[in-house]
Inverse folding.
């Protein structure tokens, strides 16, 4: 803009010199025209800016990872003359899954017209993203003045984690109450403690068909053992690297692993006690017994932040120790774990656990950690491949 002001100043000086050198009506009109141009273009720019409207309309507010979606930007010029060029700066996604901040566009709209601009792409990692117009500036025709629009719309897009499915034959636990590995289940023996309504994810073999026909809706059997038993899942999303992308990849893998385990535990008629860090850094606990609980957990985990702390799962283990009664399996999902952290975990829980499975989402376990887990007896360490979480879990449960 400074360049155009210098050029206009030179033009003004030239017109003034020309008018003084050749005293005539023509030179005076030329000088007056040059002199009056800035206020005229300023008024037109001001009117155009006040009558300009920008809308950001997302195709959806919730979208899956790497799922294409569209954001429409509608620019409406309600003035009777064409709008001067407008420079817009915004944050948008692209087809490679990246979110690009500070993206600059030059827009122009005809008189009493509306122009639509579409941005289509995907986002690679879960979380809540603010996309849209960060700033919009209109310049006059001479580019001497600038008008900044006060209202620049943004929209919130929540990227949901992937839903990893585990098949019905996968055995999560090795305790005597696990119906997926006992040769004769409580459903086959006919002994059960209660009946409840069918929920999404329940196994069809658990349906009580006679009562379902009587009540005209599906009813599911539950055993006394399954009603009382539960599993604990610790999900640790601490930042372990200076590379933000590595942290996000490991955190997404941890979240998707925890959700897969939770869904499987619920489908087996058990309760999954999830322990994780809330947005404010404090520990939070949620019991998941039904599909509604699972869906709520998906929404919570979608926006769960990466904790900026050096402490990992060992900082959450005290909450797990309060929930253990002596037979529950304990699943710990974390990017990395040091041998000292495992020592702290074992000291905290003592003998109050049935089995501990540690899933690392960022690196293979080192030899010292593997040896320490082997010496503990009922502890195992596994590597989760972010590209195939289902296969990693099935491998750990064979």
């Amino acid at each position: 803009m400074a360049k155009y002001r210098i050029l206009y100043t030179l033009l003004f000086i030239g017109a003034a010199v020309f008018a003084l050198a050749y005293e005539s009506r023509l030179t005076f009109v030329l000088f007056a025209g040059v002199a009056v141009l800035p206020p005229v273009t300023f008024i037109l720019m001001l009117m155009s800016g006040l009558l300009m409207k920008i809308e950001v309309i997302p195709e959806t507010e919730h979208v899956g990872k790497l799922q294409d979606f569209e954001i429409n930007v509608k620019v409406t010029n309600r003035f009777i003359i064409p709008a001067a060029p407008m420079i817009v700066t915004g944050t948008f996604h692209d087809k490679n899954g990246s979110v690009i901040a500070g993206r600059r566009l030059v827009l122009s709209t005809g008189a009493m017209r509306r122009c639509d601009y579409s941005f289509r792409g995907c986002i690679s990692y879960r979380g809540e993203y603010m996309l849209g117009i960060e700033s919009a500036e209109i310049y006059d025709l001479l580019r001497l003045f600038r008008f900044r629009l006060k209202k620049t719309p943004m929209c919130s897009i929540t990227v949901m984690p992937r839903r990893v499915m585990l098949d019905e034959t996968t055995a999560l636990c090795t305790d005597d109450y696990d119906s997926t590995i006992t040769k004769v289940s409580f459903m086959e023996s006919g002994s059960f403690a209660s009946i409840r309504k069918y929920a999404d994810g329940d196994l069809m073999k658990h349906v009580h068909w006679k009562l379902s026909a009587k009540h005209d809706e599906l009813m599911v059997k539950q055993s006394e053992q399954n009603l009382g038993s539960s599993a604990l899942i610790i999900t640790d999303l601490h930042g372990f690297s200076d590379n933000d992308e590595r942290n996000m990849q490991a955190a997404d893998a941890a979240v998707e692993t925890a959700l897969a385990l939770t869904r499987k535990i619920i489908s087996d008629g058990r309760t999954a006690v999830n322990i994780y860090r809330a947005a404010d850094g404090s520990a939070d606990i949620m019991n998941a017994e039904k599909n509604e609980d699972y869906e709520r957990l998906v929404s919570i985990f979608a926006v769960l932040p990466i904790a900026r702390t050096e402490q990992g799962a060992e900082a959450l283990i005290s909450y797990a120790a309060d929930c253990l009664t002596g037979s529950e399996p304990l699943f710990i999902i974390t990017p990395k774990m040091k041998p000292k952290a495992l020592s702290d975990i074992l000291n905290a829980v003592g003998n109050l656990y049935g089995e501990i499975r540690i899933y690392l989402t960022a690196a293979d376990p080192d030899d010292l950690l593997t040896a320490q887990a082997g010496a503990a007896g009922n502890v195992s360490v596994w590597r989760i491949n972010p590209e195939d979480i289902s296969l990693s879990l099935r491998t750990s449960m064979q």
About this structure: The chain has eleven helices and 17 strands. Residues 174-194, 223-229 have pLDDT under 50 and may be disordered. The longest helix spans residues 25-50. The first strand starts at residue 52 and ends at 58.
